[in-house]
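Narrative of accomplishments. A recurring question from our advisory board has been how the design workflow behaves on a single, concrete structure rather than in aggregate. To address it, we present the structure tokens for one chain from the evaluation set, followed by the sequence designed for it. No filtering or post-editing was applied between the two.
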């Protein structure tokens, strides 16, 4: 457990770096791309906006590659294909804020959303709606974006003025920070259910994980003692213990590596090759010799 707690500190340092790189008032990546490479874009979270890229594709305008949002979005997706959603697990300060605040609170006052609702179809449904919205001549405005909301709160704290917040912004903040955040088991409910950039990274990771040369979480059942520490420490509930088996959902994993650090027997690792995970057919968990196949 000491190793796990130390790694939480290391992860916090990575998230701080991600905040400095992506979010105003710093936004170093956007400033680098606009200032040195002379690309089009803004020096704030809007300069890395995935929505702008999607809107260009689905409205027939195409992707303007020489923009900060296109370069950053494409880079995140390429990294997800080869290494997993490491943006979520290493650099996304918005997800980290709710996760770390949730860890402070006792579990008895937190709701385990995954017991009531499978996040996989919900998050991909949200992604589908997000992708189709521009094609229907609609727009997903910034007030629905938790990244934008967090930057508003940070800049408001720095400038002591958060400006005028619309009702949709307040609602998004409430759902992200409290309902699916601090008072949710793991603190990553918004990430698991409603974040389109997280969902598209998971989809890229899913297809990439089929290849032997890409990086993924790997499992060696013979080393596992079923201590369930990995399931307890996973912030997104991607690892679950059911029917005396360790179940893994790649579609909600953020590749934070927290499970690899908490496992006392190194049964879970990260690297290339076959994953070794056991998954149930038709999402039904029964006896292994009857319904489980290896990835």
């Amino acid at each position: 457990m000491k190793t796990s707690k130390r790694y939480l500190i290391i992860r916090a340092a990575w998230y701080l770096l991600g905040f400095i790189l992506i979010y105003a008032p710093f936004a170093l990546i956007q400033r680098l791309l606009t200032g040195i490479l002379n690309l089009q874009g803004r020096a704030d979270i809007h300069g890395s906006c995935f929505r702008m890229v999607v809107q260009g594709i689905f409205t027939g305008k195409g992707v303007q590659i020489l923009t900060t949002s296109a370069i950053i979005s494409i880079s995140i997706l390429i990294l997800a294909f080869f290494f997993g959603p490491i943006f979520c697990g290493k650099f996304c300060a918005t997800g980290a804020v709710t996760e770390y605040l949730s860890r402070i609170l006792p579990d008895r006052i937190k709701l385990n959303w995954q017991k009531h609702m499978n996040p996989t179809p919900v998050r991909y449904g949200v992604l589908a709606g997000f992708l189709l919205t521009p094609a229907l001549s609609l727009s997903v405005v910034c007030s629905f974006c938790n990244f934008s909301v967090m930057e508003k709160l940070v800049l408001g704290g720095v400038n002591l003025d958060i400006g005028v917040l619309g009702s949709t912004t307040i609602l998004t903040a409430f759902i992200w920070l409290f309902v699916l955040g601090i008072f949710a088991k793991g603190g990553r409910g918004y990430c698991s259910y409603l974040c389109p950039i997280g969902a598209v990274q998971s989809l890229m990771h899913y297809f990439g994980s089929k290849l032997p040369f890409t990086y993924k979480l790997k499992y060696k059942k013979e080393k596992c003692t079923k201590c369930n520490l990995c399931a307890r420490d996973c912030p997104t509930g991607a690892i679950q213990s059911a029917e005396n088996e360790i179940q893994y959902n790649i579609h909600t994993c953020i590749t934070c590596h927290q499970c690899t650090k908490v496992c006392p027997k190194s049964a879970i690792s990260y690297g290339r090759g076959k994953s070794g995970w056991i998954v149930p057919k038709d999402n039904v968990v029964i006896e292994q010799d009857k319904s489980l196949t290896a990835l």
